[in-house]
Amino acid sequence: MAIETLVGTTLAGYTVRGKVGEGGTATVFRADHATHGTVALKVLREKLQHDKTAVARFLREAQFGARVEHPNIVRTLDYGQSDSDRYYLAIEWAGGAILDKYAETHGPLPCKDVAAIMTQICGAVQAAHDVGIVHRDLKPENIMYDPEAKHIKLLDFGIAADTDAAPDQRLTRAGFFVGTLMYVAPEALSGELVGPAADQYSLATIAYYLLSGCLPYTGKSPRELFSQLLTQPPVALNKAKPNMTFPMAVEAVLMKALSKAPGERYVSVKAFSAAFNEAALSTAMLSGQSAAEASGSNDAVKKEGGLLGKMKGLFGR
User: Which helix (H) or strand (E) element contains residue 277?
Assistant: First the structure.
């Protein structure tokens, strides 16, 4: 049965209601279950059912999700292989919008809002680090945000890595980096296994983007961006947009977390989160720019949205 025809059928006890998205390895459906209620059901693509590496990565994602319990991480409810030999993963249904889409519509966001969002994301990532898991693909597209509840849920441990895994257990070949180029840490470009500091770098990039609507590097092609990540410092937050000014304390925290050398960043995501939260909440935007004025500067950002959207499509995994 082709994966598109799963809608309206039952898979491992899950009644498939509709398709909500797809990636290179799996398709995600909304489904109902007698015990779990409404869930997001991720099904491995049919052509990969017999690909040992794809299956191993799919099952590892499920196992990692089951290992980490945190209110800001979608819960893994069930996974396995159905009677029809399809590998599936059922996770908690997260309401709201993809953070990337929310930021495109409502950003740049005020410091206090970004602080509230980052506190939750950092808490989720630190929980993963505490059990030896590095996410490796942190980006706004992998985060659900409910603006009414002001609550986030971290998604997709599909390319996460176990820091305790032996080299022969790695599923990514040495010399090939994984992640999304626009948010990946420079040390990941070598293809070597990265540590928690790489996730911290990605988190700082997310905060930079939410605050400014820009990214710390301006490369307009993968080659140019790759080169900048290796050879140039990131653009200082206060130089991201001509018409926006940020507290120096906020800029200092982000630029430290965006250091090229992992050892020059904060000792942990928890430490980065505490520093960012303190800087964002203890100071107001300079030059008399209020949160409302910051939101009013969205027009310039939206004009860039088309180009930025194209870059995301180009650089995403």
Answer: helix 269-282
Q: How many other C-beta atoms can be found within 10 angstroms of the C-beta atom of residue 146?
A: 14
90: β partners: 41, 78
Residue where one domain finishes, among candidates 92, 108, 143:
92
Task: Specify the 3-state DSSP secondary structure of 293.
Answer: helix
Handedness of CA 3, 181, 136, 114 (dihedral sign): negative
Q: In total, how many domains does the chain have?
A: 2
> What average pLDDT does this structure show over 147-155?
93
Whose CA is closest to 196, among 134, 261, 288? 134
Most confident of 41-45, 176-180, 292-296: 41-45
- Please, are residues 314 and 222 in contact by the beta-carbon 8 Å criterion? yes
**Which band of pLDDT confidence, cut at 50, 70 and 90, is reported for residue 191?**
confident
Q: Check residue 24 and give its pLDDT.
A: 76
Which runs of E-coded beta strand occur in 23-150? 26-33, 37-44, 76-81, 87-92, 97-98, 133-134, 143-146
Give the CATH number of the domain where residue 140 resides.
1.10.510.10
- Classify the C-alpha dihedral 12-72-183-108 as positive or negative: positive
Give yes or no for a contact between 205 and 100, defined as CB atoms under 8 angstroms apart: no
Catalytic site positions: 137
User: Residue 42 pairs with which residues in a beta bridge?
Assistant: 28, 89
Amino acid at site 247: P
Q: How many whole angstroms separate alpha carbon 192 and alpha carbon 178?
A: 10
Domain containing residue 168: 97-315
Q: C-alpha distances in angstroms, 143 versus 18, 27, 67, 220? A: 21, 17, 19, 24
Please state whether 156 falls in left (phi above 0), alpha (psi between -120 and 50) or beta.
left
